Amino acid sequence: MLLLLYGLRRGEALGLRWVDVDFDEGHLNVRRQLVRVGKELHHGPVKTRAGNRSLPLLGVVREVLVIQRDGQKILKEEAGKNWADTGLVFTTRSGKPIEPRNLARSFARLVAAHGLRSIRVHDLRHTAASLLKKQGVAPRDAMEILGHSRIPVTMEIYTHGDGESRQEALNKVNGLFE
User: Fold this and answer.
1) Is the separation of the CB atoms in 139 and 156 below 8 Å?
2) Residue at 82 is within a domain
3) pLDDT at residue 12 in the model
4) How many helices (H) and strands (E) does the chain have?
5) From CA 79, how far away is CA 59, in angstroms rounded?
């Protein structure tokens, strides 16, 4: 949900901590990321200054995060003293950080199991950008939601046109002459 609706980077989602989720004020604060560097997982600041952002907590995301929190409480009870209290939203069954490659593998299995066209986890970020464009979201707002530092990155790399959008645009032009 976070990757598709907000266009979070894989590391941003995996680095999200419960202290970054403000259920009372309704904000999701993207401040940190989890990345593999060599043989170690590093939990550190997001990729760029623009990547440091606060997003409104959408209703459906709130619901999913409440389910995640409740499920994590159960896992913590089951693990007992073996629970690694990392404070992360998304963890293994023992509370440890999720290996980014394992997320990619799980996503690939999920895609295959549902008979979908093979896509990468990162493609969800492109989809989020294209959906924002299709909904008429201003480029600056899309840039800030995605955490890009420059509008051209959002518009030239992440958003993709489609036949329906082109048809709609040409129908508008045609309307000028009717």
Assistant:
1) no
2) no
3) 95
4) 8, 5
5) 30
Q: For residue 141, what pLDDT is reported?
A: 87
Contact 15, 34 (CB under 8 A): yes
Which of 159, 120, 123 has the alpha carbon at shortest distance from 141?
159
The reply to whether 140 falls in a domain is: yes
Cα separation of 55 and 8, whole Å?
Answer: 11
Q: Mean pLDDT of residues grouped by 10 in the chain (178 residues)?
A: 93 96 96 91 86 92 96 96 96 95 94 93 90 86 86 69 68 75
Residue with tokens 């202290």: 19
| Percent composition of the chain: helix, strand, coil (DSSP 3-state, to 5) | 50, 15, 35
pTM over 0.90: no
Token pair in block for residue 104: 């990619």
- Residues of the domain holding 149: 122-178
